[in-house]
Amino acid sequence: MHHLRLRLQDNTRLHLAVGTHWALSGSQLPSAIKAADEKMYKDKKAYYYHASQTGRYRHHTDEVLPLANLNILRQKINESRFLVYFQPKIAIDSGLLVGAEALVRYQLDDNLILAPNAFIPLLEETQTISQIDFFVFEFVCLRLQKWIHEGRAISPVSVNFSRYTVLEETFCQRLAELSDHYQIERNLLEIEITENALDVREEDLRRIIDTVRRFGFSVSIDDFGVEFSNLSLFSGADFDILKLDRSLIQDIAVNEKARALIQAMSDVCLKMNIKLVAEGVETEEQLNILNQCHVNIAQGFLFSKPIPVADYETKYLPLPDADLNGGQDKC
User: Fold this and answer.
1) Please, what is the average pLDDT of the chain?
2) What are the phi and psi torsion angles at 74 (to 5°)?
């Protein structure tokens, strides 16, 4: 490794993170690979600390890089430095709350809360993202349990999972164990799989979706329309919810092709009994067009940005004795 570094140190176009570990026998290969992988990420971490010319992980790089260490990541979780916000989902035809999406934030200090794009790429690179995914899922289960005991009018909550997490052998088993532990009906929990997870082999993705649904959870395909859209999913996988990415929504008022595409997607989803959710809705004009296209559900700043759980409870889930109108207000 030393000689390799010497040969590359003057190369301004190529940067290489290296980790090595020697195994005395083939039976030790798995542990050797794990040890080498850890050293490689340590090497990468040291590079990003000092490489001001790179744009990668430059979202508060120095502050989030310690999260690449699994022990530090777990410590920050235990210190409640990761926060779960909720963003409401609204039925377009009635204006009523029909669910929420749980979204994670990282509280760096008292004055700075980081959005997911500041730390999720790093956790995916180090393949420790499942720690956060299941932290959010358990938080949602615990909160649903609390709402049920308080008699609040609850609706399903969706949780995002990385492709690395859903590929873990125990993924569905962990989902089931947590929901059962908190006595949450599984139809109250939606498992969101980002569409860029479709770089996973299609047969693996279908197997994952089928297994999750067989365990009683709903499956949502998130960010549909980013980069590419795998239309073969419709013929090969049975999922419950499709979320249109904000990039398809933002110019539907002036882009006839985008509008026609959304109308076509709405027709397909209607025939296949798939709920269609539009993300990033910011204007009444967008909402009206989505309604004309028979899109079911909207989510975006027009209704609410992601907010702390206490604010979500106050605004959308009043306690029974606090509901003076005798029903849920429209948003």
Assistant:
1) 85
2) -65, -35
Q: How far apart are the first and last CA of the chain?
A: 60
User: For residue 223, how many other CB atoms are within 10 A of its CB?
Assistant: 20
Query: Higher confidence at residue 167 or residue 156?
Result: 156
> Residue 145, Cα to own-chain centre: how many angstroms?
21
More confident residue, 14 or 28: 28
Cα–Cα nearest to 224, from 264, 195, 246, 199: 195
What is the tens place of the pLDDT at every residue in 238-288? Answer: 899 999 988 889 989 999 999 999 999 999 999 999 999 999 999 999 999
Tokens of 17: 């993170």
- Residue-wise pLDDT tens digits, 294-305: 999 999 999 999
pTM for the model: 0.79
SS in 3 state form for the chain? Answer: CHHHHHHHCCCCCCCCCCCCCCCCCHHHHHHHHHHHHHHHHHHHHHHHHHCCCCCCCCCCHHHHHHHHCHHHHHHHHHCCCEEEEEEEEEECCCCCEEEEEEEEEEEEECCEEECHHHCHHHHHHCCCHHHHHHHHHHHHHHHHHHHHHHCCCCCCEEEEECHHHHCCCCHHHHHHHHHHHCCCCHHHEEEEEEHHHHHCCHHHHHHHHHHHHHCCCEEEEEEECCCCCCCHHHHHCCCCEEEECHHHHCCCCCCHHHHHHHHHHHHHHHHCCCEEEEECCCCHHHHHHHHHCCCCEEECCCCCCCEEHHHHHHHHCCCHHHCCCCCCCCC
